[in-house]
Specification:
The protein is an all-alpha fold and 178 residues long. The protein has one domain. Helix content is 62%, strand content 0%. Helix 2 packs across helix 8. The longest helix has 23 residues.
């Protein structure tokens, strides 16, 4: 089982350890969003998404939500592909949002210590926009610590990657694109 500190060490790449997400990243033909081809643009896009999801107005989030849906519609597995995926998959988007919140929780606990139950409840409520801005249905987002931890453990249990995804992520981690 992965510890939270391991999530912190791997950062955003942890999301791609779920095969459908990782394969979608590797196979993506949306070159302008690829971290290996355009790392600065990818960082700006991700930073903008996080800022809007956390601090934006509902109108801001709606704009980003529609943009994400449109771009992600172009990222789907080809017919007959060994790994089937759609970047608009509610299950994959939920995993990405759970990973983002896990990173925030990990960083908070690293700096300030464990969250109280009240803080955890608040971060779950506030963190819902990380998911809904990715087009996750509001009812799919966990409302209790137990529900969240169950989602996290289930996602970790489903982690799997093929050699192609492993190689891609290793090159990203090693900054081979630079």
């Amino acid at each position: 089982m992965l510890r939270r500190v391991e999530v912190e060490q791997h950062g955003r790449l942890f999301q791609a350890c779920l095969l459908g997400v990782g394969q979608g990243v590797v196979d993506s033909t949306v070159d302008t969003g690829r971290a290996d081809l355009h790392p600065v643009k990818r960082a700006l896009t991700t930073g903008t998404y996080l800022a809007v999801a956390v601090f934006g107005t509902e109108a801001d989030r709606d704009f980003v939500r529609k943009s994400v849906r449109k771009i992600h519609a172009r990222i789907t597995s080809s017919p007959g592909a060994e790994v089937r995926y759609s970047a608009n998959s509610p299950a994959l988007q939920l995993w990405v949002a759970v990973c983002l919140l896990e990173y925030f929780i990990d960083q908070h606990e690293f700096l300030y210590g464990p969250l109280t139950e009240e803080q955890y409840a608040r971060i779950l409520r506030d963190g819902a926009t990380l998911a809904t801005t990715l087009n996750v249905r509001p009812g799919s987002w966990p409302t209790t610590r137990e529900e969240y931890e169950e989602l996290w453990k289930a996602g970790v249990a489903d982690i799997s990657m093929n050699e192609q995804v492993r190689e891609y992520l290793t090159e990203l981690c090693n900054l081979a694109f630079l």
